[in-house]
Structures are given as structure tokens and as C-alpha cells.
Design brief:
Elements: E1 2-4, E2 24-25, E3 28-30, H1 35-38, H2 44-56, H3 60-70, H4 73-86, E4 96-102, E5 106-113, H5 155-169, H6 175-192, H7 194-202, H8 215-237, H9 267-277, H10 284-290, H11 300-310
Antiparallel strand pairs: 1-3, 1-4, 2-3, 4-5
Length: 312
């Protein structure tokens, strides 16, 4: 089992680096078995899948014919639906556990999300203000580098995902079921006294932008966000593709931090952001890439985000 811990060319499965470290690979970390116990790890299944995704990205027939040999397609479809529903912006490529049940019998990778802190309208930094990146009506303009993302743009697999979404909307993803799951959890926290404890502990904290925590108000926000999100997904996102009405082409793929679009993240990208901050003019695509932390602003925080990516 491996964790995609940080953004990188390898984690996004675009222009991966060659692996030279026995326990880490350009953003991936081996999690199981415990490397410290046996001092070895078998990277075969992950390496094969990453290099396949990289090669097949521009070859439709190869991609559609063989992706099921490397990835567990039903799980991948559910994963896409899951992160799209919650708008889990930070789980699109990183914050994913990839695992192989049995390398000898079935080398396909399955996947599980981790660290779901940037979802349901949460921003990358604490703020009382909500930008257009956080609203529940946001389209799937942030899914670029998932290995199955291309499935979304081809008619047959796209419609299969839509059919699965509609099936789930009748059960676990029904709006009332989602709202009730959150509300019942809040009720339990309030009934046992944990809500009062947490509100007292975290009110005024910098993680909440200094505001007062009120879980009842938070629940009202969650319910409103969910109802709007599910309605938006039904009407605008999970709709069938036909020859007469094909889905629009995705935005050009880019690596987070690659502001100048040259396929690498380095000081040249820092210089572009600084130039923008100082009043320089760029095209819309570069401007979009310059908002590295997705807070709807371009400022020194984006410079810091690029430096963090460069430093790993």
C-alpha cells in the first residue's frame, strides 16, 4: 500500500520520474508492509500503473482497452463520484492510498481517499469569506490528473459513471440520506456534551479564521451546501453524453504549481506569480494556474505554495 502524499509529476502520473529510493518515489510513500520492519518494498504494481497512465494519456484506444488491467475500474468510478459529490479538491491526485490486494493473483490497484479536510466548500486556508472556488455549484473543472479522469471524457465510460451515480442517488447519495447522516452525528455530539467541549476549545482559533464555532450553525451550512450541490450535480454534471450533445472538452491539463505551463515546477513559476502580483499581464490560462492554492486570489500565499512544492 502506498500513499500519494504530495503533489508531483509522478503522483499526477504525468511525466513521472524514475524511482531511486526504496521507500519513497517523488511524492509516493510506501505504507505497507512497514519498511522499517523488513527493509524492502515491492513497487511493481504501482510503477506499472503509473507508467501505463503516463503512456496511455494520449492514446485513447490503449487507455480504454487496458486501464482495467492496472486499476480497479468500479472502485475508480465510485472514487470519482465520491470526490465530485463532496467537492474534495485536495483528493484529486494526492491524499490517496493506492493498494494491491495480491500482486501475484491480481496486480490491479484499488484506491481510498485520505485527509478529507478540503471538501464541502472548505478552502485551502481559513477564511470567513467564500470564493467561487468553494460554492456548491462549482463544475468538475478541478479533476485533471486522476488516472481515470479521461474516462469522464469518453462517451461509453462517461455514461457508465452517470448510471452508477444515478443508482447511488437512490440510496447512499440521496440528499435526505446525506443530510440525515450529518445531522444525526451532530445530534450525538450535542447530546453527549462533546459539541460544547469542541466549541469551547476551538472558538477563536486561527484554523477557524478567529470566528466562534457553533455546530448548529455549521450543520445549517452543511445542509444548505449539500442540497445545492446535489441539485447542481443532477442538472449539470452527471448527465448522459450523446452524439448530439457531447460533453465539452476538459481544460488543458497542468501540474499544480506549473504556472508557466512548461511541464515543470521551479523558480520560473515563482517569477511568473511575482510578476502578476506586481501588475504584469498574462493570458487567462496562466492566470488560472497562478492561483496555486485555489483561494481565488493571487498573492504571496501562491508563491509560498510553489516553494513548498519545489521543496517537496
Amino acid at each position: 500500500m502506498w500513499l500519494a502524499a504530495t503533489w508531483s509529476r509522478t503522483v499526477t502520473m504525468s511525466r513521472p520520474l524514475k524511482r531511486s529510493n526504496p521507500r519513497r518515489w517523488d511524492g509516493f510513500e510506501v505504507e505497507y508492509p512497514d519498511y522499517d520492519e523488513i527493509l524492502r518494498a515491492d513497487w511493481t504494481a504501482l510503477e506499472n500503473a503509473v507508467w501505463f497512465a503516463n503512456r496511455a494519456d494520449s492514446h485513447k484506444d490503449v487507455f480504454l482497452d487496458s486501464i482495467g488491467d492496472y486499476f480497479d475500474i468500479p472502485v475508480m468510478e465510485d472514487y470519482l463520484i465520491f470526490i465530485a459529490t463532496l467537492q474534495a479538491l485536495d483528493n484529486e491526485s494526492k491524499n490517496i492510498y493506492y493498494a494491491c490486494h495480491d500482486i501475484q493473483e491480481n496486480p490491479r490497484l484499488t484506491m481510498v481517499p485520505w485527509d478529507l479536510d478540503i471538501c464541502m466548500g472548505q478552502a485551502y486556508k481559513p477564511s470567513v469569506n467564500r470564493g467561487e472556488n468553494d460554492i456548491p455549484e462549482r463544475p468538475l473543472d478541478w479533476i485533471y490528473n486522476l488516472p481515470m479522469a479521461n474516462l469522464w471524457w469518453y462517451m461509453d465510460p462517461h455514461n457508465k459513471i452517470v448510471a452508477r451515480y444515478k443508482e447511488l442517488r437512490e440510496t447512499v447519495l440521496s440528499t435526505e440520506n446525506l443530510v440525515n447522516r450529518y445531522r444525526s452525528a451532530i445530534d450525538e455530539l450535542e447530546n453527549c456534551g462533546a459539541a460544547a467541549r469542541e466549541e469551547d476549545r476551538w472558538s477563536g482559533n486561527s484554523d477557524l479564521a478567529g470566528k466562534t464555532l457553533d455546530l448548529s450553525e455549521e450543520m445549517d451550512y452543511v445542509e444548505d451546501w449539500l442540497r445545492r450541490r446535489m441539485a447542481y450535480l443532477d442538472e449539470n454534471v452527471f448527465i448522459e453524453m450523446t452524439e448530439e450533445h457531447p460533453d465539452p472538452e476538459p481544460d488543458p491539463q497542468f501540474l499544480p504549481g506549473d504556472v508557466n505551463g512548461d511541464g515543470e515546477v521551479n523558480l520560473a513559476d515563482v517569477n511568473v506569480v511575482i510578476d502578476i502580483i506586481l501588475g504584469g499581464t498574462v493570458d487567462d490560462a496562466t492566470l488560472k494556474r497562478a492561483d496555486v492554492n485555489n483561494d481565488n486570489e493571487i498573492n504571496i500565499a501562491d508563491v509560498n505554495s510553489i516553494i513548498d512544492i519545489i521543496l517537496g
